[in-house]
Amino acid sequence: MADEVFVLTEVRQRTIVEAVLPEVDKEHLILEPEARGTTSAYGLAALTLLERDPSTVMLTLPADHVVHGTAKIARAAKTAVRAARTKDALVTVGLKPTFPSIGLGYIHAPGRMTDGTLRVRRFIEKPDLASAKRYMSAGGYYWNLAWFSWRVEIFIEELARHAPRHLAALRKVVAAEAAGDDSGAARLYGRLPVEVIDRSVMEKTDRLLLVPADFEWADIGNWAELGDRVHADDRGNSVEGESVLVDTTGSLILGDRRLIAAIGLEDMIIIDSEDALLVCPRSRAQDVRKVVEALKRARKTRYL
């Protein structure tokens, strides 16, 4: 379906991407000097592609999602791309909820479908359980997957309307890169505010359409979801790496550098990586993003 596939990532991930995806050449790598939120990332990608062809249609797919159901996924993606190509609109893919999740944001898109799309009325932050149950029974509410499609010229127009200073700063970054001043571009990029595209543009635009979908999906950026996909033992523990568990149940424990010992834990997450250790209850897995945001604000992105 795609004419070209680009990988958008931080420059420090370049070696990993090149090792895992040797078929992706340097012309198809769009590299952030550092992580500065999806507004910066998608803006950088859009400005990069704008130089090639303003009518280029982007389809953004986060790399930490696990999906199943090829035919349904392809149908949703094709519908989103077609809408983005033929309408002066931004398009998102929303998943029909299968349970009242309190760990995901929702998109309210009631009304009649036109050409496979619905007009978005509003974005909703992660709700409480009562609200999530109400959304399930009411219908017209979809999980926000952060899958987007747009013509780059339309996206840039909306970025100019709702985040003009951010766009102006991004243009300076791209100009510095074009002039061969990579260090200057990196300094400018590092000054950009850390903002997610949902808040900076999607919640504000009046040009947003939604493609409803119902394929199997999980956000592996959520450690609790990852635990559901690592085989659990008879005590409900999902373990990779060396460990000694005493009176421990329902926990996700990942590490490959040293022995992890746990005593008397229930429904916990322990992730031991090369330069950081994460410990939290499984019920608070979504709050890991708060740690990420705090590290970004403190400019300690080397730990991400």
Give a quick rundown of the structure.
This protein is of the alpha/beta class.
What does this protein structure show overall?
- With 304 residues, this protein is of the alpha/beta class.
- The protein folds into two domains: 7-219, Spore Coat Polysaccharide Biosynthesis Protein SpsA, Chain A (Alpha-Beta Complex), CATH 3.90.550.10; 223-303, no CATH class.
- The chain is 34% helix and 25% strand.
- The protein has ten helices and 17 strands.
- It has helices at residues 14-20, 37-50, 70-86, 129-138, 152-162, 164-178, 182-190, 197-202, 223-227, 288-297, and strands at residues 7-10, 29-32, 57-60, 65-68, 90-95, 106-108, 118-119, 122-124, 141-151, 208-213, 216-219, 238-240, 243-246, 252-255, 260-263, 268-272, 277-281.
- Strands 3, 5, 6, 7, 8, 9 and 10 form a seven-stranded mixed beta sheet that branches. A four-stranded mixed beta sheet has the order 12-14-16-17. A two-stranded parallel sheet has the order 1-2.
- Strand 1 (7-10), helix 1 (14-20) and strand 2 (29-32) form a beta-alpha-beta unit.
- Helix 2 (37-50) crosses helix 6 and helix 6 (164-178) runs antiparallel to helix 7 (182-190).
- The longest helix has 17 residues, at 70-86.
- The radius of gyration is 21 Å and the shape is globular.
- The mean pLDDT is 87.
